[in-house]
Amino acid sequence: MHQSYLLTCPFSPIPNFSFQAHLSESKEAKDYSLPNSTWSPDLMAQYKKYTEMSKDGTWERLPSYRDVLDHLPERVRLEHAQKMNHDRRMFLRNLDEEGKGFEYVMFLNSLENKTISVFQLGPYLEGPPGFAHGGCIAAILDTTFVGCALSFVGQIMTVNLNINYKNPVPLGSVILTESKLDKVEGRKVLFSGQVWSVDGETLHAEATALFIQLASQERSQPPERSK
Q1: FRET partner for 79 with CA separation of 20 to 30 A, picked from 49, 72, 96, 124?
Q2: How much is the average pLDDT of 164-192?
Q3: Which one, of 121, 71, 80, lies nearest residue 101 by Cα?
Q4: Does domain 2-9+31-213 have CATH number 3.10.129.10?
């Protein structure tokens, strides 16, 4: 099955802002990328695996908060403090009860221009009986592409997300999403990604995406990677 999605960003770009090589850590907000009691053994095993691999600097865990602005450096957060309130939440972090929706952690590999994200899909994400809704997979891919992009090219907006669904994802299962920054052409940013079962045996979905940088940002472009 093949589907195309046109997604847009709900907020305006922050002028004169350049992201660092990683997302900054908020000193006040709760970091939802850390383990909680609902994480399954598979999710914990992957978390421990990539945390261990992060010790030599190859990988880096990206913090995850409910408010978009909490991902930004403190200086920028203070400038836009009036926009921060408890009535607005990121889509994948919108539930109060842990384990019912998306539980996940993202790890960045700066040398390879990619992220590996580990997701556990809760019972509130059902589509077909016993399986996750296809829109959840689209949201996962879009989110991981953006998380990767923020670390390399700054703020972006989704222009096109093309997904080939291969196999449905059982509710409660853990999946691995690999997102790669393939090319930067001016303001155009191109990604590819795949969603796998945690054992690497089942390909659930694969995707390509086109994004546009929202503002001029002074940074060197990552090298084009061969496909």
Answers
A1: 96
A2: 95
A3: 121
A4: yes
